[in-house]
Amino acid sequence: MKESLYTASSLAIVRGAARFEGRVAIVDRHGAHPFGDLLGASSRMANALLGERPDLLEEPVAFMVQPGVDYVSVLWGIWRAGGIAVPLCPEHPAPELEHVIRDSGARTVVFDALFGETLGPAAEATGARLLPTKQAKRGSAAGRRRLPDVEPFRRALILYTSGTTGRPKGVVSTHGILTAQIETLVEAWGWTSEDRILHALPLHHTHGIVNALLCALWSGATCEMLPRFDPAVVWERLSSGEVTLFMAVPTIYVKLVAEWENATATERAALSRGSADLRLMVSGSAPLTTHVFERWLDITGHELLERYGMTEIGMAISNPLDGERRPGYVGVPLSGVRVRLVDEGGQRITGEEKPGRIQVRGPGLFLEYWKRLEDTRAAYQDAWFDTGDEAVVENGYYRILGRTSVDIIKTGGYKVSALEIENVLRGHRAISDCAVVGVPDLEWGERVCVAVVPASAEAEQGALLEELKAWAKDRLASYKVPRDLILVEELPRNAMGKLTKPEVQQMFVSKGPGDAGG
Ligand code: MLC
Ligand code: AMP
């Protein structure tokens, strides 16, 4: 009886967890939680979501839950009830949250009580029902029922990601797609139930959800979840001798290097010694500079394993677990993933050393952009997904050259759309026109910067930047907020009248980082 209610599941990841019932799945600020607890909690959660219904039948359910055991219980609870999980970022302002809830069509938002104020306006605007995690954890008044069969082809997850146009789009994966993505990584990076990963990544993106959390759960490993990234805490845990795996974006490694450099000689020695024992450290989501690769090697003795991926495709190209990890390169296609380069006309490029756009095929590719058939179709050439990234193959390894679109910016590992930011900024009364660009930055990869044609000749650069920052923060995720501003009389355009963003980027490069007054 207990078996069928708590552990029997058509979902591979949940079924697999039953094999590890007594092992620790999650370590969070409340302590250690075995897989058996996750099975029980997610079953109750599923019952609470179902109420009298037998199956949520792919109803999207949003959730805003702190990193830790409850996050997984809610995620699995939604899946076990037959719903589609839509994670929300607790740091997003109301308009971003409202967009995700409205666009996904989620009618229920499971939330931790401390996020009540954050969620209030978006829930009110969309009419979504707020279900406290605490209440959902108790299960359903209707009692426990047999949970529905959820086949691999059913939709599982919607992750919101910025594209070149409009607001962020929902990238939909099925259970089968997630399984393919996970199995590829578990095999490539040698995950076992003896692993323990230190998790300090956001839980509304694929890097934190699939690569770090779901791979650990799939393998019967332990996932130690920090409430947020804090360099001192991460160093303390990395050097504890308890962790075997770590995954992060390059900005995190830059911040960890800075933290180490600020420590005393004795502290540095202890941090370096302690972290040398990890089995594997991975970098991805943005380019890792050879400088950071070398610094990390000096400090920890680890050659960071750099890999390349995207929300729509999962991970596609990776340096090897065993074998040469070449700095500045992302390695070779992962098992089961097909990768090709095409030229501007979409023709396949053969042979090495000719740059082209990366296209990908394989069982880990997303199903669709949520309710955007045209966008989904446009993302493919034949059955190949076009990433919009350019690369070249040199001596067998892929090297990423950058994006084809200047309107996509990667900052701190987050992808943001310049056009989305411009649309919001143009709503400010002091702005007549503006151009948002990503400017190379040693810490953030790229910095979001804006050239502004002011509405009034009296506008003052520094004051306007501060005003715009405060204003944008209420409307956009903080990583989309411009960090620097230049006032211009007009934006640079070519003979056709088209905005020339490289020229805007150059203005900021020439000016250098720092305050907006320069
Ligand atoms: C924050 N700040 C920034 C910034 N973000 N400044 C410039 N550019 C940015 N992008 C500023 C804040 O305003 C604040 O300034 C200070 O930095 C600290 O802010 P914070 O929010 O506390 O920063 P921190 O927690 O240190 O965040 C840094 C980070 C975070 C690197 C931990 O950006 C992060 O978690 N990034 C990971 C994103 C990710 O998971 N991407 C994967 C997408 S999936 P002040 O002045 O107020 O102190 C994908 C596919 C794949 O890409 O291949 O994986
Ligand atoms: P996202 O849309 O947030 O999933 O981000 C995916 C994008 O991140 C890719 O299209 C690349 O532009 C970038 N990216 C991921 N990994 C790497 C890497 N190792 N090097 C360079 N860019 C990367």
Overview of this protein structure:
Helix 3 packs across helix 4 (69-80). The protein has 518 residues and is of the alpha/beta class. It has 3 domains: 3-150, 3-Layer(aba) Sandwich (Rossmann fold), CATH 3.40.50; 189-302, Rossmann fold; 408-515, GMP Synthetase, Chain A, domain 3 (2-Layer Sandwich). It is 34% helix and 26% strand. Residues 1-5 have low confidence and may be disordered. The strands form 6 sheets. It has a 9-stranded mixed sheet, with helices on both faces. The radius of gyration is 23 Å and the shape is globular. Residues 201-202, 205-208, 229, 249, 251-252, 284-285, 309-311, 411-414, 444, 447, 478-479, 483 line the site of malonyl-coenzyme A.
Strand content: 25-35%
Specify the overall morphology: globular
Rg calculated over all Cα atoms: 23 Å
Q: What is the CA-CA span between the terminal residues?
A: 71 Å
* CATH architectural arrangement of the largest domain: 3-Layer(aba) Sandwich
Q: Superfamily at the CATH H level of the largest domain? A: ANL, N-terminal domain
In DSSP terms (H or I, runs of 4 or more residues), the helix count works out at: 17
Structural domains: how many: 3
Total beta strand runs: 26
Which sheet architecture does the biggest sheet show?
9 strands, mixed
Kindly state the percentage of residues in helix: 25-40%
Strand order of the largest sheet: 2-1-10-9-11-12-13-14-15
Low-confidence spans: 1-5
- Small molecules bound in the structure, each named once: malonyl-coenzyme A, adenosine monophosphate
Helix/strand-derived class?
Answer: alpha/beta
Could you report the average pLDDT, rounded to the nearest whole number? 95
**What name does the CATH topology of the largest domain carry?**
Rossmann fold
- The CATH class of the largest domain turns out to be Alpha Beta
